[in-house]
Amino acid sequence: MSTTQMVAWVVVAVLFFWGVGAYNRLVRLRNAIANAYAQIDVQLKRRYDLIPNLVETAKKYIAHERETLEAVIAARNQARAAADQVRARPTGRGPVGALMVAEQALQGSLGRLMAVVENYPELKGDQTLRELSEELTSTENKVAFARQSFNDAALDYNNAAQQFPTTLIAGLFGFTPAGMLQSTTGEAERQAVRVQF
Hints:
Blueprint: H1 3-59, H2 66-88, H3 93-118, H4 121-124, H5 127-162, H6 166-173, H7 187-190
Helix pairs in contact: 1-2, 1-5, 1-6, 2-3
């Protein structure tokens, strides 16, 4: 075997092992996204399980606010369906976007429910409702932390898949960019609060 052939085989071997390493790194990062979403999913399930209990407790006191209660349950069901779609494809931009929209609708309906609760002192004083509200608040904090971890994992994956020369392996094996969870609140809500005296 000539020196040229030996060098060629070494170059081919280096490229092969680099390609295998790059592919394995992309797989590991894609799996990290799935794991990060699984952490969100645990908290979302906890929240989705708390909401019917919260609504049932509120029903005893505010039966005539049926629209608000039904809106919360409908938004919960839509968010749960969107979460199921993301669970199936945690790196898909479409399902992640649908989850963001559904979660925003759920947040809005829960906010309206809490506003209604504020108008009923006997409901605000209900021990079960207070405990459920505290549990829901705690869960919301855990969801926010899990979303941050998901976005960190998606960022690591996207960076790895889009950097040269790994982008060649990503394109060759169909590693598409992962969607990130973003706030869907309007620009007006993001503006700083103006205080005037």
